[in-house]
């Protein structure tokens, strides 16, 4: 049974049939018919943001906190171009997002009409796929296909561009059950021979390490569960990328902490010294590998990824397995059990004793101060005062605070940690926290921010106040672009070109101007009480935490260096980055 | 903490110096890509090559299945074996791409190109051009008293050779289609 309806009605019906309950958006001329339909129904909640970039980041936060695709509705021209940063961010971090854009009527396309932009042309490089729908008969099918593409295989953002005359036209609606089956069906089961080879290598391995990434989280809760089972059964150490935090619990026995440029000493040395590296859903990003020709030189490498193009892209893989992490982990466990649950216990125990030696270095130690709040101390206290809560979601902006949050905060479950990893988008955290809070109204949602990042999308506090979202904006305010400053100190001769924040607003007054609570804290002695006050307040809070201005983020693998050349603190930084490394970002 | 000693203008060093070298050997591969014939599909393929810095030596595209709306894109590209593998994997990731075949790996493919040559001249040169066209089995598809348009098909090397011979004989203009290729045998 097909029903005739307008294109605009079809959009809303298709969203409903795809199980969408929330849309983040901003209206404009070319999407007015769809907004008119949204007005006349109650199934789908529309969240009005203050800027289209905020809409996409909020949808990303929603998607990462729920595992469901995030949906965005914006207008043509500037609405579409403002979504580009969010789309690129979602593409780099493999977040399923469906963006619907209005377009000028088909008969005006190409005429430089008001608010016309070549949206599919502009977003071709920053979406997994996109469509311009010129035929109303294909509108509903295209939207269903868009959801399929966004969520299948390696997830990512898609965009459907809908001209205004298509929104007005009447056609018959195709429900998902009758939509044409997409030929896009990525492989999810891993090759069983490859898996058996990997299991055999795991049985022999003397110095194994699991290196897990965002793919474990994207694969769904089953993947995290299976990972825990496999890690605990084999006793192998496990480390994770920034994107994969929470897949294995931070309190777990075999947890080494995050790896990479600002990763933990023991995690990076385990990667460097291992003889079998099992990469589950990570992509050998340059933040992880450091100098690539010195990356884990003595190991065999297994790589499980749902995207075949990730395999052998930067690092040559000895055991390549294309498949979904949960499916592959299930098979690894099955084969490993069937072969008698063998592990080289003695060697692995020796390996652990070496790791314990590295752990004793205590690489996250820092000099506390009684006068100023050290940013590490602020996050350690935030962690201590909130970690018991199972519904604690942490978002971040991008920079030093982001790395400190990853180092000092622990995640016990997947989907609790939202950060812009691949693109490194300053301004991500505040709108993302709004998306998370929309998905989980009663949860504790904290955005760990730097003052400079936070200012980039601070207009979204208006959204938080309008929808009464009690998001906590925890701003580590050093009046600097901390990470830029750190790099200028280390490799640009302490010439701090434009890396300080002058003319900063009074964040407390700013909070009050938005209609939320502002808290300022600059004394370590008051910090716990101030955090408690923030947590107790039932509403959005802007917490201005004035921290030490010149603190650097350690440990650090200088660019162009290998994992075993990491810097642990200020004393070691002299001459650390050579000429070659200085050109890397 | 004191400053590091870094020479000014060190940006001449490239990050890619630190990249792994799987193999330096440049290989030439012919890829056949079956795609949905939909708007923008060629832009996606070309955008992939330009965006990721791959080479295109030749590219041809035409619809080969009118009922299924499938087009066949034949791409000749060069790169190290690792880059070729990446190109194939990245092509396979594009949503409207159905199949990617590496005809160079799947067995020596038949590769043909069509070219049109406009050669102007009189007297002995004109006769010589006609004689050479006959040797190369090129057809005359247009003629005036001062010019010929030859049509020639064959391997790119054969067309290159023909072009070299026509140049001193009054070659004015040339149009080439790029390579179309099929694997040999029944498969």
Task: Give an account of the 3D structure.
The complex is a heterodimer of chains A (585) and B (187). Chain A has 585 residues and is α/β, with parallel strands linked by helices. Chain A folds into 3 domains: 3-178, Rossmann fold (3-Layer(aba) Sandwich), CATH 3.40.50; 192-359, 3-Layer(aba) Sandwich (Rossmann fold); 375-553, Rossmann fold. The N and C termini of chain A lie far apart (57 Å). The model of chain A has no long low-confidence stretch (mean pLDDT 95). Chain B folds into 2 domains: 23-102, ACT domain (Alpha-Beta Plaits, 2-Layer Sandwich); 109-183, Alpha-Beta Plaits, CATH 3.30.70.1150. Chain B contains 4 helices and 9 strands. Chain B has helices at residues 41-51, 81-93, 124-135, 156-166; strands at residues 27-36, 58-65, 70-79, 97-102, 109-120, 139-143, 147-154, 171-176, 180-183. In chain B, strand 2 and strand 3 (70-79) form a beta hairpin. Chain B is elongated, with a radius of gyration of 22 Å. The N and C termini of chain B lie far apart (68 Å). Classes of the chains: A alpha/beta (585), B alpha+beta (187). The interface between A and B is large, with 41 and 34 residues. Chain A: Residues 195-331 form the Thiamine pyrophosphate enzyme central domain.
Shape of chain B: elongated
Any guess at the CATH architecture of the largest domain in chain B?
2-Layer Sandwich
Overall number of structural domains of chain B: 2
Number of helices of chain A: 23
Class by alpha and beta content of chain A = alpha/beta
If you average the pLDDT of chain B, what whole number results? 88
Indicate the structural class of chain B: alpha+beta
Number of strands of chain B: 9
User: Main sheet of chain A?
Assistant: 6 strands, parallel
Number of helices of chain B: 4
Shape of chain A: globular
